Amino acid sequence: MITVMIDAMGIGLIIPVMPDLIREVNGGGLSQAALWGGMLATSFAVMQFLFSPVLGGLSDRFGRRPVLLISLAVMAADYVVMALAGSIWLLLAGRIIGGITAATQATAAAYMADISPPAERTRNFGLIGASFGAGFVLGPLIGGVLAEFGPRAPFWAAAMLAAANVLFGWFILKETLDPIRARAFDWRRANPVGTLRQLGKLPGVRQLLFVYFLYHVAFAVYPSVWAYFGQARFDWSPSMIGMSLGLFGVTMALVQAFVIQHSINRLGEQRTVVIGHLFAVGTYCCIALISSGLVTLMLTPIAALAGIIPPALQGIMSRRMADNAQGELQGALTSASSLAMILSPLAMTASFAAFTRPDAAIYLPGAPFLLAAGLMVLAMVLFILRPTSADVASQAT
Known about the structure:
With about 400 residues, the chain is an all-alpha fold. The protein contains 17 helices and no strands. Helix 4 packs antiparallel against helix 8 and helix 7 packs antiparallel against helix 14.
């Protein structure tokens, strides 16, 4: 959990300064910077999509610890490259390298599955999400403060955090994969298409994977456009953007640490998923249309309630997998979220640019949030209409 938190801090550190850094190395206005930001995020996600199943399979073969430590070491080097970048193409190269090794959360989730009884996995997946949220509280806040020293300062801080995480993992983190449970690495399953196809054969999993994918496409509106949206709609500074993201991280951490288990105990995983989608749809529509920065900040805790969705979906799917296939499942889930991050930044930043450029017919910086709300509605409908447990059982028979 501490490893995931420190890693999230490194990611969150750089978000508030990305618009300014892109304009520094490439010129142009905010709309053009948003388009480049979408390309950088997409290149990161493409690599993560392609390589997450490979790293997940390797963790099932060689253990969680070595995969985690190597990924973090290369991530530290990636932040150094970003800090020194003098052109948009070097920034792009840095994002490609970073995406290849960005398997920290998936490997940590497999680690958590190793040490958790099946009945407790949903709650513990929520703790992983809470740890990420806690890191996301500190990261943007510190990044916003460091932005006063220039747009490159947060990247140096992120590099030092990733390096510290390597040292922490080296001395503290123990291996959890019993050698008896290790399985041979199979290239046919260690690719996103093969992994998703393999998991899609399990009754009921294919629909849940697609719901998980749509959730991440919609939820990625925050990292994709929040820094640009805040500047365009409210004229927020990098420090204010960092504070707003910090508030979102606080509420996400609280939701996944405390709310998820109470919701599952009272409502069950099925209703938890539906209610999470309802909160997301309502808040996305409000954020898209209101013009008050204060009201937007007040909506943040409600928007964070959508964070109950992924742990509940993970818990449902995890119980359908064998113990020695948890790494494969988490790799597939990371691939699904990475595929979402391939599509979402392009779609969200393109819609932002279309509605904020000087010749736009309608000036609406919140347009990406309306798009996200529509995707959440689709995901909720698919989840509700998916085959019931009895239907799945009859199909399997």
